[in-house]
Amino acid sequence: MEKMIMLEETKNKLRDGINEAKSNGELTAHKIYHITHQAALESGEELKNSVEDMKETSKEIIMAATNGLDQIGETSSEKISAAVHGVIDGVKTSEERYVVQANKDLMHAKKRLKQEEDNLTESLNEAFIGAKEAVSHCAPAMKEELYKALHDAKLNSIDTLGLTKKTVKEATNLVLEAGKNVEGIVENTAREAVSKAMKEASFSADRARRISEIVLSATVEAAQESNKYVKEVANASIEGVRKGLVESVDFAQHELTSMGTSVEEYVQNDIEQTKTDLESVSELFIEVLRKVADKSDMLAKNILHEAADDAQKIGCILQEKSHSASQVAANKMTELGHEAVKQTEVVAHKITEESKELAERMLAVAKGATTGMWAGAKAAFYKKDDKGDKS
Questions:
Q1: Phi, psi dihedrals of residue 297, rounded to the nearest 5°
Q2: 315 Rama sector, left if φ>0, alpha if ψ -120 to 50, beta otherwise
Q3: Displacement of CA 194 from its chain's centroid (Å)
Q4: What's the pLDDT tens digit per position in 333-380?
Q5: How many beta carbons lie within 10 A of that of residue 353, not counting itself?
Q6: Within 13 Å of residue 231, how many CA atoms lie on the same side as its CB?
Q7: Which of 60, 123, 205, 217 is the one with CA 20 to 30 A from 359?
């Protein structure tokens, strides 16, 4: 009821503005635009329109404006156009303010996210330091097992700690110095590093790309710097990264399968984005191979590009796994939001129909059949001096 009263007040104010401008001989297209623009803007702010309210509000304001113009015999195409443009631009201006504020909020949220991530890393580091000090005070018979457990815990958080590349590179150096079962150990090292780092957070293509590149680069660089087993390390690392990604995809698929069906959980997990990311895993793996290849010496470069060519031509188990997981995501989306998917199709159809109408209008304007536009008034609205337009 309160909204209806306020809308009536806005419409009355609009009609009064039109009549007053007519009486003063100031009823230009520019003036009409100003009046309807303000009416729509004030309506959006005062009524705090929801999306559902906006249709009714816009209709009522346009009807009030055009009826008012009709009653005083001011229905030229320029003035009718000005009234419509004023309302639409008023709605746009009102809502754009919220978009601007949302962008500011998003920037603050990103800044806060970075701070929280830094706090997480710092807190985790302090926790490990405290744990290490605690071990030093334990009985000697327990220390070895405690240190093993502590190091294993740390390995599960190497991405958060920012230690992935250094740790993998150092591990590769140790393998190269020992010179035993180089390929097998490097492959397992790369696989474990990718798999564990990926499981630290929700699956995403960006994380998969970044972690894969870090691990592959670390192993290849270690081999090139020591000038030992470059071919073996490159091949083993490729296979290890591939297997690590397969494990992370399997893990993501398991998470999707075991996910609940509440709306909150649906929103929080953003299944649609996960589906898109899963579909891109095979391509990003090839992208990473080529990127690391371009930064490597000739021997490793050729091996990496050859592996990328093979993966591109014949595919691999990673492609099959990612496709399977993306299908699980698609099924989950259908399960959780069948009606939402149907509604999206309806919206897409409406957009197509409106695009056709606008295309026809665009051609008509371009051909000069009729402009239907109120030339200059919108631009004039933003000028301080509006006394020159008396159309």
A1: -70, 170
A2: left
A3: 23
A4: 777 665 455 555 566 666 777 787 777 777 777 766 554 445 554 555
A5: 10
A6: 1
A7: 60
Summarised one tens digit per residue, pLDDT across range 201-253 is: 888 999 999 999 999 999 999 999 999 999 999 999 999 999 999 999 999 99
CB 293 within 8 A of CB 304: yes
Q: Tell me, letter by letter, the H, E, C secondary structure of 256-303.
A: HHCCCCCHHHHHHHCHHHHHHHHHCHHHHHHHHHHHHHHCCCHHHHHH
| Alpha-carbon Rg for the chain in angstroms | 32
CB 281 within 8 A of CB 245: yes
Q: Residue type for 297, please?
A: D
How does pLDDT run across 93-107, given as a tens digit for each residue?
Answer: 888 887 888 889 989
* Rounded distance between C-alpha atoms, residue 99 and residue 103, angstroms: 6
CB 41, CB 94: distance < 8 Å: yes
125-141 pLDDT, tens digit per residue, is 899 899 989 998 898 88
Rounded to a whole number, what is the distance in angstroms from the first to the last CA of the chain? 39
Distance CA 190, CA 312 (A): 21
The structure tokens 């290890």 sit at: 240
